[in-house]
Predict the 3D structure of the following.
Amino acid sequence: MTIVIKNRFTNAILLTYDGADLRGAYLRGADLRDADLRGADLRGANLQGAYLRGADLRGAYLRGADLRDADLRAADLRGADLRGAYLRGADLRDADLRGADLRGAYLRGAKGYICLGYDPRGYHFRAVAHARDWRIMAGCRDLLLPDAREHWRNNPDALARLSILDAHPLPSAEE
């Protein structure tokens, strides 16, 4: 796989890279829009302000990466390791986080993401803004809000967590 990394402000090519070992790389402000970074090792990388909209990051290792203010709209992060990643101000609207490991990730201030807490069974309820509605992830479930309400209709704790979203209008993808 060849990766070409450009500065999002000047469009200058910063790096052309064959391979996927980018541990600790300095990619601040890089234009990685629609990049194929499946399984890439980006542990500890500085991706602050990087433009990763639509990037394929399935199974990527982003443990401890600095993703502050990164644009991750519509990025595919299924199965990505985001443990301890710093995502303050990152834009996660329409990002696919199914199966992503977010343990210890700093998500305060991330756009399009709301932590709904843990239920008594220990399932972490999370909401990510999706095209038409909130996408709810908890345990092995990944449901749009109406389907989540139906699925957990007999679970008062889960319904209380979902009701938190009533106070949060769905953010526009272009805000």
